Amino acid sequence: MIIPNKKPVILDVTIRDGGYLNDWYFDNQDIINMVTALSHIGIDIIEVGYLHSDTTKPIALQCSESYLKLLRSKLRPETKMAVMLRSDDGDNYLEMLEKTADHIDMIRMACTEEAFERELEMIANVKKFDIFTSFNFTSITSFTNDEILWMLDKVMAKDCVDMLYIADSRGTLQPDRAFEIFDLLGKIWGKPLGFHGHNNQGLAIENVKAALSAGVEFLDASIKGYSFGGGNTKLSDLLALLHDKRTDIQLGSVNLHDLIELDNSPEYAYLFKHSGRKNLEQGWVKMIWDRYGAESLNFIQQIPNNQLNKTLADIGFQSVVSSTN
Predict the structure, then answer these.
(1) Residues with Cβ < 8 Å from 229, sequence gap 6 or more?
(2) Are 54 and 162 found together in one domain?
(3) What kind and span of H or E run contains 221?
(4) Rounded mean pLDDT, 208-233
(5) 3-class DSSP state for residue 90?
(6) Closest CA to 300 of 314, 315, 320, 313
(7) Cβ atoms 70, 79 nearer than 8 A
(8) Is the overall model pTM greater than 0.70, yes or no?
C-alpha cells in the first residue's frame, strides 16, 4: 500500500467496529452507501470488516473476494481498503488471502496478551502476500511501559509490521498517558503509528490531540462513534479537529449522519463510563450486568483505581457457580 500523502491519515472503522452493534447484519446497500460516501468525501482508508473463512457469517465477517471486489468498484482510486484479522480461524486465513490479497490494501491484526505470539506469527504470514500490515496493541491501559517495550521488541525482531496501532479498547486512556505512550514508541519504532480511541469518558478527541502532538499519523473514527461499549472517536469530531490540516476533505452534499442508524444503547449502557474509569474490558460489562443486575454500578465502584485489571479475577468478579446438590 502506498501511504496517502495527506496527513494525518483518516481510517474509518464504522463497518468493522460498528458491526458489534448489529452482529454485522448490515443491509448490503447500506454498506455500499457508506463506502461510496466515505470515499467521495476523501476518507483515506475504509475498514470493511473481518477476514474469515466461515461462509455462514454475515458478509462483513467474511470479506470474501466477491464482497471486496464489489466494494472496490465503489471507491475512488486513491481510497484504500482495510480488513482486520483475528486469530480464531486456524490457518484458514492463508487460503482466504490466496483469493483476496489483490483486493486488500491493509490488514490489521488485533494483538492480545494471551495470543501475542500466535498473532505476530499470523501477521508475518500476511506480509508474505505483500500487504501493508498493522499490528494493533489493544487494551493499552492494561500494560506497563516495560510490557509495551517487551512487545515492541518482539515486533521489531520479527520485522514484518509496517505500522503500530495503539487501541484504547477500554476507554480508560488519559491524554497525558496517551502522549507518554506514543512518545515512548516514537523514539524507538521509526515507522508510522496510529491511534484507535474509545469515548467512554468523553476523552476520545482529547486523546487524539495528544496522539497528534506526539507525531501520530493514522487516526481511527466511525460515523456517530458507532462501536461496542462507550463508542469510538466520532468521525464528525475528528474532521472538525483536522479541518485546517485536511482541507481536501469535502463534506459537501454528503450527510454522514444519514448514512446508517445503529442502536448502541443497551439497558446497561450507562455502565460504560464507569467501566472506563476503572480500566475494565468493555466485554466484561455485560457479564457484570448479568451477574449483579441493578447492583452492577455498586460492584464497579468498589473496584480500586489505578489497577491494570488483566483478568476478571483482578476485579473480584465471581461467576455464578451451578450446584448439583
Answers:
(1) 171, 198, 200, 272, 275, 282, 285
(2) yes
(3) strand 218-221
(4) 96
(5) coil
(6) 315
(7) no
(8) yes
